[in-house]
């Protein structure tokens, strides 16, 4: 009997590590926003698509749909979040940021879904399933990142030149095994410049369609979230800024006074010449919001006893620990029951 | 009592139209495949990303990851399919093809998931979340479709010039209300030429990771599926070709003799100068497979009493009816229990 009991306990422990089934009330995807641009006098292209096909003539002249945005949603049953939860990614990335980690663990999308939040994962305008526009006719040529760029810039390695030697910041939580870093690089996409007004318009269209939401935004997505919230604070129940890479307009900080905000940065910020400037700007912006009567809770993870986080917090080995900190804050704000 | 009974019946009918909750054993996403390309001597670009950020210097020289492919999967509980079910989209599109219809109904992904299939939806290499490579350094400049192109080419309108007048083929099943056609155009993305070997390698990597599968492939995806199956027939439990836009190599048709195949085209094919050629080539390829001892069931939907289908069968108003025909064929082949 004792032996059987021990086996049962062992099975339960193994079972806890294994993900449990999840019931969805509904799920799906859609595109929102966008505008029409008409092109003329462009050359026609002709080609044979493949073996067994027939020649194809593509005339690019006419109306192009530009600036739309893709969103995928999953609504769990039962729901415990009191508002939809949006996950907005950063530059050179797509919604995949939230779906999985480079070492194959579930991402924040699944973390929050399993806690009863209806989650919405988007691809920012011009990236991923949102689709980009013709270059150079509508958008300027995009930029692409080679492998050393995130390694040296996202506080994974020890800065410029560290990719060549694969030198990692001490105690860094990012999965840096060669196969994991390569998995991360597979998620990286091009980024177009000059598209900010399209991106902001599409995020507003998304929130208008879904309704007032909790928005968790990362890096470039954080800067967009602040700028969107200044235009439509009524559409934000709360705003969680994960390492925002920019701010809103300081002169209009008061527009954010009624949106509860959480600001989170990871480790190695002060010693990084670029991230130290970015966080200083973000804290100055937060101070302006607070001076106007708003609430921005500023979390420095190492000071909370959570060291080693790179810029990609939601992919780091302790990603669930950081997500739990966000979850606890949302619950404390009364947004989860 | 009678009144109350009638209300109950009405409620039940309304309830039947409403989707029921669904339980997933697991879900997630990953990237597969890809290769590394090294660039050198390219110019560095510098810009200020946004308000409150710090200047950013992007040096494109170094190793780029190219040719990887994104896949998202959902595994229902209980499972009734005896193999994973893959959904491969066509040219100028992404996996969104299978997720939703332009008029907002559930797509084939949900149709098959609700019947107990573990579904895998991919974005072909260079499209959507798979990410494209630098132009013109690695890939040649892509092509983009203006609004009239699918209308006139996908057997929605009455051919060349029909978009201007919005003339629709009689009895056409595609959702052509202005807001629905615009929703479809939001899903359209660029397509790069010269990437076939990357695409084929990534599909093989996908099947090697997931295991032998049922593959449902549309248009360009159908041509790829035939070409992938000729290289690795061991990885296909069955192959459903929805309006394939090309074929495999006729000389190697015998390689497909052990893969059960279903070939489906919609309406208006014979009267279309391009699709009539494409179907003739597909049927000649099917005949070569059959001559080698293989099985290709050739379905002309109008002959089966299902008229009005455009090239985008999975988005047409009767998309569930066509999906049911595929489901019945898979069940008859013993692939569903």
From TrEMBL, chains A, B:
Gene3D superfamilies: alpha/beta hydrolase (3.40.50.1820). Residues 210-258 form the AB hydrolase-1 domain. Keywords: Signal. The keyword Protein biosynthesis does not apply. Residues 1-19 form the signal peptide. SUPFAM superfamilies: alpha/beta-Hydrolases. This is Esterase. The lineage of its organism: Bacteria, Pseudomonadati, Pseudomonadota, Alphaproteobacteria, Acetobacterales.
